[in-house]
Amino acid sequence: MRERRKAREIALQVLFSLNFVNIDAQDALDLFWGNFSAPKAAKEFAAFLVQGTCEHKEELDKLIAGCSDNWSLGRMSRVDINILRLAVFEFLYCEDIPPKVTLNEAVDLGKTFGSENSGSFINGILDTLNLKLDKKNATKPLDRKSRSSKT
């Protein structure tokens, strides 16, 4: 699973770079791979994360905003918001990754790449969102993106 951690780090770097350049996700990945290398599995998972996060950005931002009391997305650091987007994408669309693993990985990314408060900030938002998703899914098991098949 070390390759998945590396893939998340790469995905975060690529997503962060997209805050500063006006190119699509695939072009950003191509630029990254032109300068850095990674094992094939890490490359594939990183590409999946970047492309999926970009495709679902509006949906992800809505969910994050709904769990971040007193913090608009514009007030969050770019590192933190990109970590949150990655994690929420995993919650919703990576059926083979338990939510607890996603949460722990996101907190670790925050501690490594964010500020001294990023880990606890990310943990609070993701924990709240995970509880909301579980509660929503318990009441509407057929109408939701099935946590058992999408996380």
Brief descriptors of the model:
disordered C terminus, 2 domains, 151 residues, mainly alpha, N-utilizing Substance Protein B Homolog, Chain A, 72% helix
Q: pLDDT under 50 segments (min length 5)?
A: 141-151
Oligomer: single chain
Helices, by number, come to 8
Largest sheet: none
Overall radius of gyration: 15 Å
Query: What's the CATH topology name of the largest domain?
Result: N-utilizing Substance Protein B Homolog, Chain A
Tell me, rounded to a whole number, the average pLDDT.
90
Beta-strand content bin: under 5%
Helical residues, percent: over 70%
Any idea what the CATH superfamily of the largest domain is called? NusB-like
**H and E order:** HHHHHHHH
Q: What structural class should be given to the helix and strand makeup?
A: mainly alpha
Straight-line N-to-C gap: 16 Å
Number of domains: 2
From the spread of the alpha carbons, the general shape counts as globular
Name of the CATH class of the largest domain: Mainly Alpha
Q: In total, how many beta strands? A: 0
CATH architecture of the largest domain: Orthogonal Bundle
